[in-house]
Amino acid sequence: MDRLKIAFIGAGSAVWSSTIVVDLLINERLRDRIDIWLMDIDEWRLDVIYGFTKRYIDELGVKARVYKTTSRVEAIREADFVVNSAMAGGHSYYELLREISEKHGYYRGINSVEWNYVSDYHTIWGYYQFKLFMNILRDIEEYAPNAWMINVANPVFELSTLAFRESRVKYIGLCHGHLGYLKSAILVLGMRLMKEHGYDMVVKCAMEEPECYFNTIQVVDPREVEVEMLGFNHVIWLTKFKYRGEDAYKYLDEWIKEDAEKYWKTWREYYHNPFEVDLSPAAIDMYKTYGLLPIGDTVRGGTWKYHWNLKTKQYWYGPYGGPDSEIGWAMYIAHLRGKMRELANAVYDLTTPITSKYPPRPSGESLVEIIDSLANNIEKSWYYLHLPMGVKIPVPIQVNTLNNGAISSLPSNVAVEVPARVSGRGVEPIVTSSIPRKILNQVLLPRLMRAEWAIEAFLEGGRDHLFNWLIVDPRTKSTEQVNNVIDDILKLPGNEEMAKHYS
Hints:
By secondary structure, this protein is of the alpha/beta class. The chain folds into 3 domains: about 5-90 and about 125-175 and about 355-430, LDH C-terminal domain-like (Alpha-Beta Complex); about 180-325, no CATH class; about 435-500, no CATH class. It has 20 helices and 15 strands. A 6-stranded parallel β-sheet has the order 3-2-1-4-5-6, sandwiched between helices. Strands 7, 8, 9 and 10 form a 4-stranded antiparallel β-sheet that branches. Helix 1 packs parallel to helix 2. It starts with a strand and ends with a helix.
């Protein structure tokens, strides 16, 4: 059987890349026939993920091979799969842009707008990210025209739409945010079923105790649950939620009426992870407002109602203000840095097997499942998510792909996030529900407008795109404010090319 070349662009995002490497090396159909090419411009980070992969291969005794390079073309040339996680400039660049924006009165940055408050989801100021992405696509077209590109770099919605419109590359966009339904819809279902049997788990769940999650998830027979999540990346909604053939939204309604306040009281007291917002007051308020439950990163979005300032965020998302407040995001960046140091220390500690510190078990990501399907022509629309304590549940494969009529109420030439069937034939969306008119008009179309705006700004250039983006922003008080923040961002050292593009 021919060997497969899998190239990782931005492999220095090693905390994430290491989990995918493990998934590849424990997959029985892939591990003995893959050549893993790791590419990054940061040589220290590249050395860490290379060392991790080399040691893992040796300890497992598999026939995979690993290579490292700082050349994108070398990594991509004749690849079968190109996995992109690169972020142009890294987090430090975007935090500097955010700092400049806030000096001019734009809390959390000029990119924070309705339905797009996720802190590393940069669109209007993401010139270099868009350019890097397009360069990767062009390299694939030239050096690996038969390769699949699997992109996990943000902004997935805009980049995926660009890929389908501006390139010939076979493309899939991925995000694991849809798995949030397990900690919202399925968790509520489990809590309600436990309550029917006399066990009240609401307080334990609010305290994020593992026994709550595993007890509640196990009373739900996953074979009798039907879910469907539709929308754009980071703006997806639970359009179908059935248990044993019946509408399971009734369990959510019961939970809100009887248990939500008790849950939130304990949740606020024991809250320690700013990302645990799946059943936050913001999530439930969005459900009451729009009629469907927001899933995963969608909860981090919404309108300015949830995001005016830190105090507002704390009301809706808990004591830290959720993951995208100045507190929550600083915690996340610190967490990433700590995990990177931890990974590096493990790689360079030759006295302890790397597999003992990072055990060979599935990460829960769908990426390798998809590679397996495409490479080996194995049809999949779901895969098993392995949880601690031996719990294993089926979850849907969710992709960002060209709409092309899958969601009839949205334009065909935009990327949508939908459940899909993957095989050697490629990607086939599986859509059985429709988008309610209220979500279409008040959520998805406004979000689409912002995406089109950002794409036009990148493709066409010109200062007017930046100006028009900000002049309608509710934080804007004057034309002078708009011009000043644009000037200061474009004058930033390193932004000379961006300044020329937007002149």
